[in-house]
Amino acid sequence: MRRRRISDNKHHSFSLAFEQEQKPSNGERGRCEIHIVEAMSASVYIESSVVSYLTSRPSRDTVIAGRQAITVAWWQGARSRYEVFVSILVMEEISAGNPEAVARRLSAVAEISSLGISREAYVLADALLSTKAVPQNSQRDALHIAIAATQGMDFLLTWNFRHINNAETRRLIAKTTSAHGFVCPVLCSPEELGGIDDDE
């Protein structure tokens, strides 16, 4: 389990590994080598809306079509840079609806690890609702944030700008999460994560 509390500083871009060689028997000076080792890939929680945009049929709506294209580009070009996860909640949400659409969504995430929902996640979700960081009628959105935070995710990827990736509520979401001892993941869309180029 990848829980990341505030005091946890394990997520860095690089870590240093030191190796002290034994002093050679011939009296020559030994070497102290410093190796720069790339740390664990950043973790990304894939929220249900991303899977929906990824697998839905092309839309005539220009905004939706744009998001679909960006999502596909991120999935094909940037996803491999990260350690990606879904959750039991995501699996439940993408399993509802038209059978053909469900099959496409489930196929897209078939090889992605699914996170469980801990008691801490439920407690944090309730706090996000009670502080009005997330609207009372958006319990599932609060739970997505709580799962990602309590499981130590670095990013929460979503197209939900209303209740999750909302500029007006991000600060309160982070404050509430911090008050419960966890670090809030960066809330962002596929367009904001991974440096997708226009040519991709």
From TrEMBL:
Gene3D superfamilies found in the cross-reference section: 5'-nuclease
Domain of life: Bacteria
CDD domains: PIN_VapC-like (cd18687)
Entries under SUPFAM superfamilies matching the protein: PIN domain-like
Name of the protein: PIN domain-containing protein
Species assigned in the record: Candidatus Kentrum sp. UNK
